[in-house]
């Protein structure tokens, strides 16, 4: 087939040529002045994206590594932890905390729905002895395409002193997230989603309060130890050998993000959400997430039951070389997920909607060609 595979999964996402070229540079000494300059620059920029002046450590790991880093540094065995779960990734965060000995209470939200801040408020009020040490929440649940209102959840915690930890792997730099202004203690993220670079880096941003808690927390830790990480950061180094190539890529990607502007990027992702949702609805398909909490970074589409989502994905892949994600666990063969985060253009989404219409028509779904595409065109026209 002519051309590259078009990757439309919610991570890894497409990489700009500028980033690829930056990553091909030769190795440098990671304990020398060149690396120091890069580390200091990207640390400052990622903090800007988190809207914080607090601490940041960048690990050579996938996003899950950062989730584990948060648990080992800030939670002790026996601590009570409240985990809001609404899909695969919320469950994972809860599982990691449980693996390290926390007493995890899960507030399970139906898959496809968002957390209810009022329920969290109620639960926190029922904890007068402040037993709950941490609240774990997924910002953007990638398995369902639902995002949580982090600001409202933080407000619902009121004066409760539990550490507020947010998994923002598929949202940081695509959705608004204001660490200092909203009072978030820990933000975790990864490189392969909205940052436009390959997998392999994770980010952990944490407040002074969290740092203090880490000094008292007594889970075993070595590789993830924040005290060690911060000690080296003062010298312009990482504790262990960093993924140098990915740092080149990150620096270039952050330059691109700065050129576009965070506000514009956030607006662009919201526009993609509108484009995909109106277009797919016009094709006669249903969406998993309600409009009020639909993710700007990916859309979960319910395939016609007679087709199944995996057949739709297979045809898109074989005929058009477009790779979409399937549903995970209970949503397997029910939904397909269209990632529209990071280095994605309107043009890409227009062509994907056109290909999806052909696929549906070919598989026997009753559709008039052009119904979805024309809606997508309209969204673009209205936003010019
Ligand atoms: C992708 C993702 C993760 C896990 O990241 P890995 O890089 O696969 O370890 C965690 N949480 C969310 C919300 C994600 O989207």
Structure description:
With 384 residues, the protein is α/β, with parallel strands linked by helices. It folds into two domains: 6-12 and 261-382, Aspartate Aminotransferase, domain 1; 17-259, Aspartate Aminotransferase, domain 2. The chain contains 14 helices and 14 strands. The strands form three sheets. It has a seven-stranded mixed sheet with strand order 2-10-9-8-5-3-4, with helices on both faces. It starts with 5 loop residues before the first strand and ends with a helix. The model has no long low-confidence stretch (mean pLDDT 97). It binds pyridoxal-5'-phosphate. The site of pyridoxal-5'-phosphate has 13 residues, from helix 3.
What does the secondary structure layout of this molecule look like, with pairings?
Elements: E1 6-8, H1 17-23, H2 33-50, E2 55-59, H3 63-74, E3 80-85, H4 88-99, E4 103-108, H5 117-125, E5 132-138, E6 140-141, E7 146-147, H6 150-157, E8 163-167, H7 179-182, E9 186-190, E10 202-206, H8 208-216, H9 226-234, H10 244-260, H11 262-282, E11 286-287, E12 298-302, H12 309-320, E13 322-326, E14 335-339, H13 346-362, H14 371-382
Parallel strand pairs: 1-13, 3-4, 3-5, 5-8, 8-9
Antiparallel strand pairs: 2-10, 6-7, 9-10, 11-12, 12-14, 13-14
The site of pyridoxal-5'-phosphate (PLP) has 13 residues, from helix 3.
């Amino acid at each position: 087939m002519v051309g590259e595979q078009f990757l439309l999964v919610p991570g890894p996402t497409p990489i700009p040529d500028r980033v690829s070229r930056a990553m091909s540079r030769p190795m440098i000494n990671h304990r020398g002045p060149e690396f120091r300059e890069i580390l200091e620059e990207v640390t400052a920029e990622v903090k800007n994206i988190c809207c914080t002046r607090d601490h940041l450590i960048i690990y050579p790991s996938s996003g899950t590594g950062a989730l584990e880093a948060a648990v080992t540094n800030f939670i002790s065995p026996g601590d009570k932890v409240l985990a809001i779960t609404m899909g695969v990734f919320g469950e994972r965060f809860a599982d990691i905390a449980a693996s390290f000995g926390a007493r995890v209470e899960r507030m399970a939200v139906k898959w496809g729905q968002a957390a209810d801040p009022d329920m969290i408020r109620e639960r926190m009020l029922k904890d007068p002895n402040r037993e709950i040490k941490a609240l774990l929440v997924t910002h953007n649940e990638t398995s369902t395409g639902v995002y949580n209102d982090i600001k409202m959840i933080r407000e619902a915690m009121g004066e409760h002193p539990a550490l507020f930890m947010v998994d923002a792997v598929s949202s940081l730099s695509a959705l608004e997230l204001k660490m200092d202004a909203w009072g978030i203690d820990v933000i975790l993220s990864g490189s392969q989603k909205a940052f436009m670079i390959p997998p392999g880096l994770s980010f952990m941003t944490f407040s002074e309060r969290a740092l203090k808690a880490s000094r008292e927390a007594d889970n075993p830790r070595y590789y993830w130890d924040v005290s060690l990480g911060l000690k080296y950061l003062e010298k312009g180094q990482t504790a262990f050998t960093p993924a140098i190539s990915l740092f080149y890529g990150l620096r270039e990607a952050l330059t691109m993000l700065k050129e576009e502007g965070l506000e514009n990027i956030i607006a662009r992702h919201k526009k993609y959400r509108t484009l995909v949702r109106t277009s797919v609805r016009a094709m006669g398909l249903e969406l998993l997430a309600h409009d009020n909490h639909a993710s700007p970074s990916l859309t979960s589409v319910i395939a016609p039951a007679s087709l199944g989502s995996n057949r739709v994905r297979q045809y898109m892949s074989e005929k058009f070389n477009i790779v979409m994600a399937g549903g995970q666990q209970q949503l397997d063969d029910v939904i397909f997920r269209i990632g529209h985060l990071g280095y994605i253009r309107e043009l890409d989404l227009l062509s994907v909607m056109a290909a999806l219409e052909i696929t549906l028509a070919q598989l026997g779904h009753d559709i008039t060609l052009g119904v979805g595409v024309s809606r997508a065109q309209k969204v673009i026209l209205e936003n010019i």
